[in-house]
């Protein structure tokens, strides 16, 4: 799945104002789905609180009152019409599911206060900044990542309460009838052991086990898939929880560690070690990105050549590449989710846009969408290498990491492709037009590549594809 993230409020268009021409453009670029980030109504108290930080803040779209559309964007009928128009273009629409918390002034507190995390110093250490007094007289916890202070515009859900789990499961089921998938915010915070460590460390294990006997996610995902088998669930995941969340039924999980490697001081080594350590199955079920709304802008963080190479790696590995609104235009301003307009005018980088168009044209080919993958090792310094195969075609991808120029050895070599790929070395060529033959000398422990032709390939592109035919 190739996913494009649109900040729904920053986009400045109501659902009805997103044109068929725009949708057609996204589909033509090769995107399978649009993630409309931040579509839900937010609490008025969160809006007011955000203005303490900046007068043009209008509240966080992750501090929601409930799962009703923000009236500034439209209503459920408007969204349904947009979804129908997107479907005609072959596009699916992904929305946010926020399992950990609601807005601190959600009306649900008045009707169902037991669903939320109340102060109880007997069971945990508590810090004043992580709690607030609700007008009902209840002292409630803010939604929280254990490594940071509580999000003061939110209230934490309590998943040890069966009614909470039922309500959030039913909400997810409703979303499965409303849209084509969800990106689940901070999905690992709803894991059973995370809840116990963070909120109930002093509660006896047997009491906790009775209160929350199993995981929330597997039951909730199964219920959503029953009403919509094609419903796609994406886990925002950190702390090496990806594989566990995938085992609970998620279709994809974030691979944030690859981005960390791409921006590390020793990025070539870090990326190489990361790709050596993960399987093809892991890559197929994870989502990679060079930026999103939580991360720094790629064009601000990376030099132009390093940015192009990083984008190629994200798009040509197996799995689900994510492209963020503004990324293809080279936008450098990171806009907080509480702000709905940029502070600075930005002229699109037309050269970068053209590069992304050509890259996405490659990424949407079947060999990269559906093909097999095998990690490779090459003698080219600072380059990541891998094989892809589909039908009668095999490709070797060589992507230098960082912004250093390529320095080829006299006789560059790469580890052999898997025998099952049946790659014919005599058919090697660089893609055109026109295609350029590339001499390859097979050996028992690797294939030697012609340095002169390879150097031309790196002069013409940030990365190199070498195409082979499969033997009959």
Please name the defining characteristics of this protein:
single chain; 472 residues; alpha/beta; six-stranded antiparallel sheet; 32% helix; globular
Word description of this protein:
The protein has 472 residues and is of the alpha/beta class. The chain has two domains: 312 residues, Glycosidases (TIM Barrel, Alpha-Beta Barrel); 99 residues, Chondroitinase Ac, Chain A, domain 3 (Sandwich). Helix content is 32%, strand content 22%. It contains 17 helices and 23 strands. An eight-stranded parallel barrel has the order 1-2-5-10-11-12-13-14, surrounded by four helices. A six-stranded antiparallel β-sheet has the order 15-16-17-23-19-20. A hairpin with a 5-residue loop joins β19 and β20. It is globular.
CATH architecture of the largest domain: Alpha-Beta Barrel
Give the helix/strand class: alpha/beta
Largest sheet: 8 strands, parallel, barrel
Q: Largest sheet, order of strands side by side?
A: 1-2-5-10-11-12-13-14
Distance between the termini: 30 Å
CATH fold-level assignment of the largest domain: TIM Barrel
State the CATH superfamily name of the largest domain.
Glycosidases
Overall 3D form: globular
List how many beta strands DSSP finds. 23
The number of distinct helices, counting runs of at least 4 residues, comes to 17
Q: How many separate domains?
A: 2
* Mean pLDDT reading: 97
Q: For this structure, what is the CATH class of the largest domain?
A: Alpha Beta
Q: Into which percent range does the helicity of residues fall?
A: 25-40%
């Amino acid at each position: 799945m190739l996913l494009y993230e649109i900040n729904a409020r920053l986009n400045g268009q109501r659902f009805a104002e997103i044109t068929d021409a725009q949708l057609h453009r996204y589909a033509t670029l090769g995107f399978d789905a649009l993630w409309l980030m931040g579509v839900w109504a937010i609490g008025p108290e969160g809006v007011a609180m955000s203005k303490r930080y900046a007068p043009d803040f209008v509240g966080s779209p992750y501090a929601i009152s409930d799962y009703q559309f923000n009236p500034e964007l439209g209503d459920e009928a408007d969204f349904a019409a947009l979804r129908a128009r997107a479907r005609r273009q072959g596009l699916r629409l992904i929305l946010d599911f926020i399992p950990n918390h609601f807005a601190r002034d959600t009306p649900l507190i008045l009707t169902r206060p037991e669903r939320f995390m109340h102060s109880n110093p007997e069971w945990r250490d508590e810090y004043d900044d992580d709690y607030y007094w609700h007008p009902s007289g209840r002292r409630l916890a803010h939604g929280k990542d254990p490594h940071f202070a509580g999000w003061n515009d939110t209230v934490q859900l309590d998943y040890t309460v069966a009614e909470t789990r039922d309500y959030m499961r039913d909400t997810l089921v409703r979303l499965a009838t409303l849209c084509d998938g969800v990106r689940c915010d901070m999905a690992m915070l709803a894991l059973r052991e995370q809840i116990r460590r963070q909120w109930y460390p002093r509660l006896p294990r047997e009491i906790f086990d009775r209160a929350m006997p199993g995981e929330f996610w597997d039951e909730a995902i199964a219920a959503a898939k029953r009403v919509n088998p094609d419903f796609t669930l994406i886990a925002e995941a950190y702390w090496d929880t990806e594989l566990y969340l995938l085992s609970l039924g998620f279709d994809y999980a974030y691979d944030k560690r690859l981005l960390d490697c791409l921006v590390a001081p020793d990025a070539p080594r870090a990326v190489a070690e990361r790709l050596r350590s993960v399987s093809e199955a892991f890559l197929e079920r994870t989502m990679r990105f060079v930026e999103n709304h939580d991360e720094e802008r790629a064009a601000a963080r990376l030099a132009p050549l390093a940015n192009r190479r990083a984008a190629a790696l994200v798009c040509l590995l197996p799995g689900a590449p994510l492209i963020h609104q503004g990324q293809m235009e080279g936008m450098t301003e990171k806009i907080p989710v509480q702000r709905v307009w940029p502070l600075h005018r930005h002229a699109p980088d037309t050269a970068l846009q053209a590069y992304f168009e050509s890259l996405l044209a490659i990424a949407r080919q079947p060999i990269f969408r559906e093909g097999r993958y095998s990690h490779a090792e090459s003698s080219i310094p600072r380059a990541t290498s891998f094989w892809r195969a589909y039908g009668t075609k095999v490709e070797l991808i060589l992507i230098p990491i960082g912004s250093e120029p390529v320095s080829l050895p006299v006789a560059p070599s790469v580890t052999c492709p898997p025998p099952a790929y049946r790659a014919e070395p005599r058919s090697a060529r660089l893609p055109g037009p026109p295609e350029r033959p590339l001499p390859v000398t097979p050996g028992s422990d690797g294939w030697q590549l012609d340095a002169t032709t390879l150097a031309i390939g790196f002069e013409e592109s940030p990365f190199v594809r070498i195409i082979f035919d499969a033997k009959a």
